[in-house]
Design brief:
The protein has 215 residues and is an alpha+beta fold. The protein is built from eight helices and eight strands, in the order ααββαββαββαβαααβ.
Length: 215
């Protein structure tokens, strides 16, 4: 503990102000760490039903994969709910547990990526969007082959489930599609209330405990 010993000596000899200056300047010469997103990486989602491992591939969607990596690094998905689970279609997540955090990040849009040969088939992940260049934090897992519907609309897959698709199939779907198609979940209140809206009203909704990188 050399830094601690130096601090104690300074405290005795130079006084509190000098110690505070030492503490403040201890990391002054450190440069911000550069994050290099791997071309391919895996993330384990520890969910209320079990573990799901997804593999992200940067060549499929460079902007999408960079954002996904960023969100996992900041633990954005932890405690987030699978708020839209429609059998044969999608399981959607990506609203932060805290509205104040989600409110900021849902506005940090990323640029669109061009479609590649990858299709929105069962087990792929893509960002939700409401128009050009509107991808932010919300992601869905395709529960069936959605390529005919989603590919023409520009939903670009960026990852796929490589372990635990059987776990995904167990996510609670009893609340149905969101309004106005369904009758239970209000999409506006999901966006504006996050877990404060979802948790007390939809207790059976499955959720992500932690999302961590696999080495």
């Amino acid at each position: 503990m050399p830094f601690l010993r130096k601090t104690l000596v300074l405290w005795k000899t130079l006084g509190t102000s000098a110690v505070l200056l030492t503490l403040l300047c201890a990391g002054c010469d450190k440069k911000p760490k550069t994050i290099v997103v791997p071309d391919v990486f895996r993330v384990k989602f520890e969910t209320s039903q079990g573990d799901v491992v997804v593999e992200a591939t940067k060549s499929w969607s460079p902007h999408g994969v960079d954002r996904f990596h960023e969100l996992v690094r900041m633990r954005y998905f932890d405690e987030g709910r699978f708020f839209r689970v429609v059998p044969g279609f999608v399981a959607q997540f990506g609203v932060h547990r805290d509205y104040d955090v989600h409110d900021k990040w849902r506005k940090y849009f990323i640029l669109d990526d061009p479609m590649t040969e990858q299709k929105n088939v069962r087990g792929t992940l893509a960002f939700a969007q409401s128009g050009p260049n509107t991808r932010a934090t919300e992601i869905f897992i395709s529960l069936g082959d959605n390529s005919a519907v989603l590919d023409p609309q520009g939903f670009v897959p960026f990852a796929r489930v490589v372990e635990g698709m059987d776990v995904v199939d167990k996510f609670y779907a009893g609340y149905g599609e969101m309004r106005p198609v369904g009758k239970n979940i209000d999409p506006g209140r999901v966006e504006e209330g996050a877990n404060a809206y979802l948790v007390p009203r939809f207790p059976k909704m499955d959720f992500i405990k932690h999302a961590v990188f696999l080495k």
